[in-house]
Amino acid sequence: MKTRIGILGLGGVGGYFGGLLAKAYQDSEEIEIVFIARGETLRVVAESGLKIITKESETVVFPKVVSNDPELIGKLDYLICATKTYDIEESLLALKKCITKNTVILPLYNGVDAPERISALFPDNEVLEGCVYIFSMIVSPGVVQNVGSLQRLLFGSYSVSVSKMKALQTIFKNALIDSHLVENIEDAVWEKFVFISVLASATCYLDYNIGQILENREARNIYVSLMNEITMIAAVKGLNLPDDIIMQTILKLEKTPPDTTSSMHRDLLAGRNIELASLTQFVVDEGLKYEVETPTYQLVLDKLSNLMN
């Protein structure tokens, strides 16, 4: 029996990690990688393959299947989800025929609310928690560029069978993916969420890239205020984050190319829909729920809500 893995979304995350999987298992009899795409991305990848550009190389990969038709996609053993958070419900419900009761779903979205939302749609399925550290973007449909030096994937679960998680970890490792099966996955996902939520909120509010935030004292103060608010919520929720998480996060930024910005900021500049609900509003809502004040997040939410209306 073949293990069939679907990659939903071929952006910076799905395109990069899906590309490594497709390259590794191109000739495999045991593992089949299926790209799930639509529109121009589907057309380009079907005709010319998916191109992945890194600092060292350019690679073109061809999956066994690339489609948005559930009949062609077929039943999946694993589904790796990497669309935008505002597409979760619509994109997954469109694949209902491909998701059996045995399909294990791995969300690699920005934000921390995806597993709960997916379980509401598919209550009988095993849903992992996961996150990635990567600076990667779509250059054009079917072309993904990785601009950073970190490409790490973390996943785990308190309820999914260990054998299924270890099987997936082996598949990742054999594809040379820097993946880690993490015991305390909720802490790891929130640690990433702190990084991505603050960066997305700050870059969009200030209209600055990472270098500008680090160079400007006022911008850096706003960044640190956002960090203080979200880490306070994490502490009240009982999550175990590093004591020096603010300093760790700033060090991560300093290692990133200074002209890099968040994907939410890129979407805002391009006039596209943005993940405001999952990355900024969610923190304000959690603050209200746990009685933690979030005045800086509220400032960001108010400004960006007005921009989007």
UniProtKB/TrEMBL annotation:
Pathway(s): Cofactor biosynthesis; (R)-pantothenate biosynthesis; (R)-pantoate from 3-methyl-2-oxobutanoate: step 2/2
Keyword vocabulary terms for this entry: NADP, Oxidoreductase, Pantothenate biosynthesis
Source organism per UniProt: Flavobacterium cupriresistens
NCBIfam families tied to this protein: apbA_panE (TIGR00745)
Record-given protein name: 2-dehydropantoate 2-reductase
GO-annotated molecular function: 2-dehydropantoate 2-reductase activity
Enzyme class: oxidoreductase
EC code(s) of this entry: 1.1.1.169
Domain Ketopantoate reductase C-terminal: 184-305
Catalytic activity: (R)-pantoate + NADP(+) = 2-dehydropantoate + NADPH + H(+)
Pfam families: ApbA (PF02558), ApbA_C (PF08546)
